[in-house]
Amino acid sequence: MSLYNIRAIVLGAVNWGEADKLITLFSRDRGKIKAAAYGCRRPRSRLASAAQLFSILELQLSEGPRLDIIKNCDHNGFLADFSLDYTALAYASFVAEIVAEIFEENQPQEQVYEKLLQIIPAMLKRNPRVVALAAFFQILEYTGSQLQYEYCAVCGRKIEDDAFFSYEEGGAVCQKCRKDENIIYSSTVRKLILHLLNLDWQAPSSFNIQAKNLLSAEKIMLDYLEIILEKRLKSLDFIKQITK
């Protein structure tokens, strides 16, 4: 089995067997990697750090026919310290689960990796609910399942005023192309989504969001995630538990 070295972020870990874990990693060069950390749940295991969420690791892995195996890892700190902010942790976990579920394994995703380096720490600096929403719209642009927000997904006409939204058509739908089952897509929601899409994580500007527009944009996000993933994300229960 060939060995390779890589720097990666831990996006998830689940127990496997008596003392092992399955780790979901995300790297610049290979994108998502699912790997086994054998014995990492044993006391004093040298692989224990591989299971810590949002760790930055330097790893040596061996390629396997079904699953790569973590042979060694060095812990290089965390993307953010969520020990005192469980709300931020909940929304960061939501973003991590989106990335873990939406991307195929071993597909280079340099831009998504760079986004994660900026988005996860931003959870502690900005409203994490808004950060998670912006993260969804930005990350979706790299999936091949992105939606159209500014132009009609049917005729291509630029949308200026209130319009409609269709997941089946792939996003915004103008008045002329609408169908009865399409949901309302207001101009204020469109402007919010476009603002979030272009949010600069290095120097994010302050802005106000009306609750109704936030809820509408979140509904688009959550409904579309269920459509493309065909399931409900587990992290949503964590968010509900922390924020109730």
Radius of gyration: 20 Å
- Biggest β-sheet: count, sense, barrel? 5 strands, mixed, barrel
Shape: elongated
Number of strands: 8
Distance between the termini: 48 Å
Overall residue-averaged pLDDT value: 94
Order of helices and strands: EEEEEHHHEEEHHH
Question: Brief description of this entry?
Answer:
It contains 6 helices and 8 strands. By secondary structure, the protein is α+β, with helices and mostly antiparallel strands. The strands form 2 sheets. The protein has a 5-stranded mixed barrel. Strands 7-6-8 form a 3-stranded antiparallel β-sheet.
Report on this structure:
The protein has 244 residues and is α+β, with helices and mostly antiparallel strands. The strands form 2 sheets. Strands 1-2-3-5-4 form a 5-stranded mixed barrel. It has a 3-stranded antiparallel beta sheet with strand order 7-6-8. The protein has 6 helices and 8 strands. It has helices spanning 86-102, 110-122, 128-140, 187-197, 211-229, 235-243, and strands at 3-16, 20-27, 31-37, 55-62, 68-78, 163-166, 171-173, 183-185. 34% of the residues are buried.
